[in-house]
Amino acid sequence: MSINEIIVSIDNFVWGISLIILSLGSGLLFSITLKFPQIRLFKEMVRCSFKNKKGDAGLTPFQALSIAIGGRVGTGNITGTASAILFGGPGAVFWLCVMAIICSMSAYIESALAQVWKEKYNGEYAGGPSFYMNKGLKFKPAGVFYALLSVIFLIIFAGVQTNAFSSVAVASFNISPFIVAVIYTILLVLVIFGGAKAIANVADKVVPFMSISYVAVAILLILINITKIPAMFSLIIRSALSMDAVFGGIVGASISWGVRRGVFSNEAGLGTGAWVAGCADVSHPAKAGLSQAFSIFISLLICIATSLMILITDSYNVVGANGNYIVQNIVGDYDVFTTKSIDSVVSGFGSVFISLAMFLFTFTTIMAYSIYLNNINYFFFGGHTNKKNIKLISILINIAITILAFFGPLVKSSTIWSMASAMCGIISLINLISLILLYKPGIATLKDYERQLKMGIDPVFIPEECGIKDAELWNKIIEEDYSEELANYKKIFNKKFM
Length: 498
Fold this sequence. Notes:
Helices cover about 75% and strands about 5% of the residues. By secondary structure, it is mainly α. The chain has a single domain, classed as Amino acid/polyamine transporter I, CATH 1.20.1740.10. The strands form two sheets. A two-stranded antiparallel sheet has the order 1-2. It is globular.
């Protein structure tokens, strides 16, 4: 058995029925308990995402959102979505959407908890899964183990991003992967060594542009093929529910690949988005949580755009469990599905547009990973070393990202994808179990937020009022940065504290 076959076997084992049930089950638990806030509070999610309060110690909510979208919207939304169709059929698109909508509440819980137990180091906020595993679960070994696996995953996934972009660029323009690696790495170095604020300044400009442009092209392509829309949606539903003669036999693969690539593309429940959520300067953890839940819908929108372009133009193939084609509409693997779909309307444009989109999507994803890793750096060393050493470690982390990004285009695509997918599953498992164990404080944040909204005030977070312990930093944050909001809180609820 080759190394590649071993890695693929591990990936398939990790993404077995247990993890799929855990991913969907936890999201459903949070959604039902909170009465589906992803629907009820959608307007509030948008409002929290675009508030632009400037804080010296943290990112603005919009910057945190942009970085999170940059992290969530990457190769998984184009190449990953195409691979879900290849291995799971059109029905995988349905399950990908179900997973994203339900599990957006997992993104809320992990992001709110990252805020609850965030810390302040060298004048900057830092928070994330390892922080809430340490202070919330009071089990630091889990936080350390998760952080170590996350370092490996994020650095490997930097290679996945450049590998995916290289595959498209090489196929489109017949250039050497080595040239792609060199140019990409040089551009990456110019940005990620500037620090979190520099990355945020790039992300909040590039992310809206790339997302709107991609969706606009998808809408145009769909309108050109408007007569095929009913048949396309019928195919997706029938395939997902085992009602289609061609795809009925792979409904299990449809669910598995839909959920797997759903997590892979939007990272809900994975915990990665929580690393940047913990950096945001907000008056209440629920604001960061709602904003991050909204980012799942943006990521889903890109996945839907990709799926519909591919399916409405029949630019896809599907393989069964034995590796043989069930459907073969085009020549080529999943990495050219989206390109072929656009080329079917405007010949030659697909190569240029998808190459540009893949570059921007993957580039902003790696930028986001740099911030995630910097927060992990704070978790390990923030309280034990000085600012100079922290900066040195951050530089070393960025060097590691740069090296993997360089070698990504030079390795076999299936190997690096399976390796990253397996790691994704493992850290999802650890994080989802932690979220379920921290179910009560996570739920309490949103209930407290809604309680204050109903009274007509801008909510502030008082940990003791939510029955949450070991979050003393918040008392200082509210007193110093949100004194006016605190005064309103005391007046409305007739509280005497702080």
